[in-house]
Amino acid sequence: MIWLKETVEYRNWGLNLLTFSAIATFLFSVLQGWGIFKQLQLIREKRSGESVSVTLYSYWFFYFVSFSIYGAGAKSLAMLANSFLWLPCLLVLAGLIKYKQIKITEKIGFLFFCLMPILMFFAPNRDNLFTVYLFGILIFMGFQPFEIWQKKKSESVSPQFLITFFLTGVFWFFYALAINSWPLIIFNPLACAVICLTFVLWLKYKPRKRAV
Fold first, then answer.
1. 54 within 8 A of 99, measured Cβ to Cβ
2. 56 and 186 in contact (C-beta within 8 Å)?
């Protein structure tokens, strides 16, 4: 209870941009979580993780774990709420391990990403490290459209997942403009562009219904 009273949301509650952003963050975190669970559901239904990037979900899992450390240090309930997306990411990874053959490079990547929360915990300047992690998402998001293009299949990739993350990126872009946050202003349009590319490839390689 004492920690709750020290959070930025509690101390600044009222009709202001911070309160609006906190509420919106909670709502969009739920939306993102739903999108990731739809991806998990599709993997289980198809009993296949083909064309779903293990590297992307590995990075996301450790990114959100690191974000929980960052959010706790910043005393932000909104950040902590968003960081709980590590759980659905972990479940998707478990589904991929069960239904997909994991490459040695993907295993090495997972072990390398394990260092992210450790570095965040001991980092003297967490803000700079968080920015590095944020833009790292762009690199590993590129693995998803590449894998669809490489496999020429997209039936195991959830369109709901892509749509929810695109909507979230649009929200954060306009919020970044409101608070004049240049890292977020630059990041979100690029992230939306990668998601759009992924969606185009998803449409191109999704199974076609045969005419009767």
1. no
2. no
